[in-house]
Automatic annotation (TrEMBL):
SUPFAM superfamilies to which the protein is assigned, alphabetical: alpha/beta-Hydrolases
Domain AB hydrolase-1: 30-267
GO MF, one annotated term: hydrolase activity
Name by which UniProt lists this protein: Alpha/beta hydrolase
Amino acid sequence: MSEWQLSETFHSTSGDVRWGSLGHPGQNPVVLLHGTPFSSYVWRAVARALARHHQVFVWDMPGYGASEKSADQDVSLAAQGRVFTELLAHWGLEEPLVVAHDFGGAVSLRAHLLHGARYRALALVDPVALAPWGTPFFRLVGEHSEVLEQLPPALHHALVREYISSASSPGLHPVVLDRLIQPWLGDLGQAAFYRQIAQADQFHTDEVQDRYGEIGFPTLVCWGQDDTWLPIEKGRELAARIPGARLEPIAGAGHLVQEDAPAELTAALMAFLPYPH
């Protein structure tokens, strides 16, 4: 389960981005976006399933996973939206299918509404898209990030473990949990963890949420019914704001749907995403 390597590098305006692709070139392209505090690793099962009929592109956002982490790095939602637009141009994808989770949802929406990125279809999975967002813990860390960044490594490790664990409803496999924690350890990782939370500003979704009615491509909204980070009521509101969008509740799943119910999520995506038969 721990084998997941991104072999390619793209030099973005916010640092080096690690990315990879699965499936045969020339198949319908689909791009997967992860959220915070995660990485493309959470998409591994879904990506491998979708790769049977698509060329699947995966990437770690700057400041996350295997991508560059550096002091004074801009890892805000504004920066990630620009980087995603740069990546689409680098890949030569003019109108891909897009599947986006959590902060990745906000990134995909900003790239489309503010930077002109075009999608053939969009599936949003428990996305950060509507105010208010951020758990009490998330807001607390954001307000005291400079202090928490100085925690002893063992205390930081325990904090990150507890936080990531709370994204799952049934609980994460220990190997998976360790893999999700690993990028946030060490001097670079610890600083990066608090940096990305400190730069998370609701303004970046406030800026676009009144424009969701402009979305003109097929849109699916998937939501874990047991999500304690972003309640499913947000999913219903979001689906109502996007013309023709449909809400797909995922039973038994928390916020990290890809880990809690990968088969159910994959089935919903395969029924929604077009591919040649």
